[in-house]
Specification:
It contains 1 helix and 12 strands; from the N terminus they run αββββββββββββ. It is α+β, with helices and mostly antiparallel strands. The strands form 3 sheets. Strands 3, 5, 7, 8, 11 and 12 form a 6-stranded mixed beta sheet that branches. The chain has a 4-stranded antiparallel beta sheet with strand order 4-6-10-9, with no helix packed on it. The chain has a two-stranded antiparallel sheet with strand order 1-2. Strand 1 and strand 2 form a beta hairpin.
Length: 191
């Protein structure tokens, strides 16, 4: 609306229309700024998640429950979201963890979940023993001491009788009181 008579003051409708136009431009600018801020937050969250799940090149997750697993790796799986293993081959599984309590014993356990069913994977027939103290490396040994960092490595035989499918494996180390000292999860495909 253009005001043609300079001696007359603009009508109330003129000022209402002008305020609406300014408010609309202001709200569009605010909306755009909010969207940009939200996109930055989403990007930061995605980058944080990617750095959390890809530690040392192997995609894994710590188990719920407060264990202090610092690193979890399966030989030959660096940079892979889905680690493919062949039946009959042996892979090295490594964990680095900070002990949450003192203990003179450490026991290994592996669980596999596939198609909604979870079950312990047999360790007795495997190429290692469940006494995890015998597989501490780099000068580490039992007893373990709270807040000390330990390295664990063991050979893991992929048994011939494992059905070829995709599994979520959970590998844990428990102390003498059945408290979890270290635990990691990753997805593997047995072929």
């Amino acid at each position: 609306m253009v005001h043609k008579n300079p001696t007359r003051a603009p009508s109330p409708q003129f000022w209402t229309a002008r305020r609406s136009s300014v408010t609309l431009r202001s709200s569009i600018a605010t909306s755009t700024a909010k969207k940009a801020t939200m996109m930055k937050c989403v990007l930061i969250a995605c980058l944080a998640l990617a750095s959390f799940t890809c530690v040392s090149g192997t995609f894994w997750r710590p188990c719920p429950g407060g264990s202090k697993t610092l690193d979890f790796d399966v030989e030959g799986c660096a940079g892979q979201r889905l680690c493919t293993v062949r039946r009959g081959e042996t892979r090295s599984l490594s964990m680095r963890f900070r002990a949450t309590s003192d203990s003179s014993t450490l026991t290994a356990a592996v669980f596999g979940k596939s198609r909604g069913m979870s079950s312990p994977m047999p360790l007795a027939s495997n190429s290692f023993e469940s006494n995890a103290c015998n597989n501490l490396v780099d000068g580490s040994e039992c007893p373990i001491v709270r807040n000390q960092v330990y390295n664990y490595r063991m050979p893991l035989l992929i048994e011939q009788f494992f059905p070829p499918t995709t599994y979520m494996i959970q590998f844990s180390l428990k102390d003498g009181s059945s408290r979890v000292q270290s635990c990691g999860r990753m997805v593997i495909r047995v072929v």
